[in-house]
Amino acid sequence: MAMPVSYHCAAATDVPPETLYRMLWLRLRVFVVEQRAAYPELDGRDIEPGAELMWASDGDEVLSTLRILVDPTEMRI
To answer: Model's pTM, two decimal places?
Structure first.
């Protein structure tokens, strides 16, 4: 029986390393491979002050991920 989906929110420094790896792998797979985006996805913004990472997981599997960035004049997703 599958575990229920759980939702999380944390700064990159508070995400367990294996989970962070799975999140970044998913982002790379979606944005670089599937969408054929020819620009670097890992841009360093995940570790900026105020940045938050959100993700949904089923056990150890990361199902989705979202990055929230805080700029001085606006908030962007």
So the answer is: 0.80
